[in-house]
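About this split. The held-out portion is used to measure sequence recovery: a designer receives only the structure tokens and must propose an amino acid at every position. Recovery is the fraction of positions where the proposal matches the reference. Here is one held-out target exactly as it appears in the evaluation file.
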């Protein structure tokens, strides 16, 4: 296997993850409380990680790309990856770059181990083909007026409640893309690993800081 040329890179450039398959599997815009909370945690590490103004004002959600869970990480980058969950019963596990607090990527059990999510407002994508946003998620987590304004300029399907609208065509398409198995030959290639293997080796800690702040922003509209 050739060394992958598509990478996830932290803000300072010290931490890089190579994507064996550079093609985005899907792209969404997420308004959920937890994405916002993770963004605030990253901002707490370095002001350069502050939420984009449009995200802060609920004009758009966090920009999420999804890729096949087949990664190449060298030893230096591996040592910089810190894995955490917001709470013991939280679904997502996130890898943060310890050097600068960039949110590198994450997983959710619904992906069945086949995909990673990447917050493109925090992490830098290089060598990745463009893909238009496909769906807006978690309108239930932002002020009603902000959701109405976002819906008024909707150019993709809008999902108010992910739980209640799991059968919506856009949700089915998203989950189908994210649960497509990675080519087994890719995973057997030398040096290729998965998010879960890296997290298991490094250990996963809990960090629920910024919980109140993230929810208060949504309640107040700021
Ligand atoms: Zn960094
Ligand atoms: Zn989210």
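Reference sequence for scoring:
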């Amino acid at each position: 296997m050739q060394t992958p040329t598509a990478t996830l890179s932290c803000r300072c450039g010290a931490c890089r993850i190579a994507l064996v398959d550079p093609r985005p599997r899907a792209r969404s815009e997420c308004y959920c409380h937890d994405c916002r909370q993770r963004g605030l945690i990253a901002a707490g590490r370095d002001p350069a990680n502050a939420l984009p103004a449009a995200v802060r004002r609920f004009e758009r959600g966090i920009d999420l790309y999804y890729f096949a869970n087949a990664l190449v990480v060298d030893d230096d980058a591996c040592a910089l990856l810190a894995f955490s969950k917001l709470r013991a019963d939280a679904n997502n596990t996130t890898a943060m770059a310890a050097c600068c607090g960039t949110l590198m990527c994450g997983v959710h059990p619904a992906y069945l181990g086949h995909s990673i999510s990447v917050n493109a407002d925090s992490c830098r994508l290089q060598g990745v083909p463009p893909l238009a946003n496909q769906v807006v998620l978690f309108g239930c987590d932002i002020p009603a007026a902000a959701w109405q304004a976002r819906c008024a300029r909707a150019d993709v399907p809008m999902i108010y409640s992910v739980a209640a609208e799991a059968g919506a065509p856009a949700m089915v398409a998203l989950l189908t893309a994210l649960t497509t198995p990675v080519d087994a030959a890719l995973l057997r290639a030398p040096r290729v690993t998965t998010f879960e293997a890296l997290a298991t080796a490094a250990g996963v800690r809990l960090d629920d800081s910024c919980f109140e702040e993230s929810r208060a922003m949504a309640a107040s509209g700021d």
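Annotator remark: The mean pLDDT is 95.
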